Amino acid sequence: MASITKTPRNIGTRPGWIGAINVKTQNRRFAYTSGTGEMITKNFGFAIPINSIINGIKVRVRGKSTSSQNLSIRLRNVTDAINVSNVIPVTIGNVFYGSAISVPGAAGITVADINSNQFGVILSRTSTGGRISVDVVDVTVYYTVISTDAAVVKNFQNSSNQDGGGIGTRLITDGTKIYGATNLGGTNNYGYLFSMNSDGANFRVLHNFVNSQGVFSPPSLTISGDGTMLYGSNDSTLYKISTIGTGYEEIYDAGERFSVTYLDAGDNTRLYLATSTKIIAVTTDGLTVDIVFDVDDVAWSLLGVNGNSFGFWEDVAVIESGATAIIWVPTYGYPTVSKLVQITVYFDTGSIYNVQASSSSLSGLGQIRAPVILSNDQLTVYGTSVSAIFRADAEDGANLTTLHSFNNSTEGSFSYGKMLLIDTTLFGVCLQGGENNGGTLWKIQTDGSGFEVMHHFAESTGITPTAGLCYLDNNLFGGTFDGGLFNGGTLFVINSGI
Fold first, then answer.
1. What gap in Å lies between CA 280 and CA 270, rounded to an integer?
2. β-bridge partners, 278
3. Nearest-angstrom CA–CA distance, 245 and 339
4. What is the pTM of this model?
5. C-alpha triplet 404, 489, 257: angle, nearest 5°
6. Partners of 123 in the beta sheet?
7. Residue-wise pLDDT tens digits, 113-170
């Protein structure tokens, strides 16, 4: 069992307390009262790992009083927490609330409760006469990290307009917060864009979508390099909005569904949209639009991709080198063989002046419904088909190697969404199969060794993990489309084990 002790960052008072800020440190400088009123301490700055169990909380109040006065202590922002009356001694000393194995009246306290900046301690006095002086208030949280399975951060409710569910977009992060979008719920029941802390606290709706924005189609989401702007798709609409939820603006209509990938290309910041048949470059103001590649264009017939769509509107893998951008995208593989298409885009003063493309066969892998990703040295691409994990040389698609073929019943099937590469470990999800036929979360080393199913999805944690995975604070975050407490899907977290 681990423990962390913190003192408050913010202090507030109601009539009666003087010098409340003095309780932040133990230095024999006192906050005091001779009357009634409350002193409110909050924002302790806890960052308990979200996949933890709270064993107990102990509040220490160090102080003194004239003629042993009574002081009531209770937790703030904790459901069912109760007041406990304590006698403050005449000679300076400590009184305690709770313990390492208990929280008075608050059996259901969560990690999110404690990590919230609204969590705190309230000291109150209902009688007058004499003086109570407090030197310091601190809180110790005792917890046990559970790292062997997924923990639910939030359960969604499809039946409620205010909190609908169905996480169809992949989650993204700015290094501090997690962002995503639902397919249902919100004030208009067409889904909403949200943010939350990595510990699950401060869940906030940034924007409620309306019918015309078509959120029922699988949405896509990406973030600018400086972490200030979100770009997303709803049906055929490309929008942008700040990460604090201001300035929502629709900037382009592609005429069909697409995913969106952010890239700062050369002198111009661009977004690459991937429909089922096209790659489109759009500047972040929506003013410059270029069709980079169209699988139905006769100009690309020699690549053998005509009539073969890209994999279900997924992100493209893209890098830049000076005024050149290189894009990798697989084709779906129906009714013909899947192919890996490499597209090189040349810019001149911000405009595209030339595009070249090549392709290589991904024969034997079956249908591909997920994007490829690049190795850290950009020499290798990794990807998944509905039944396998593979790698190939990024330059020309050579040395195609199957790293692992899924056993549907024990390991999952229908691999979906963008994989994560952390150091030398690949992480991904399957939508179906596994022990409960609700999908799986798995990992494998880049050399094909060490395949392991980390989690078998079930109704309790959500099923059908359509949101893929997001990595933050050594944890993997994801979202499911169904299951959970209200059968509206869940947000979940699991320790990466790295």
1. 10
2. 294
3. 39
4. 0.72
5. 75
6. 39, 73
7. 898 889 999 999 877 778 999 999 999 999 877 655 788 888 887 655 566 677 877 7
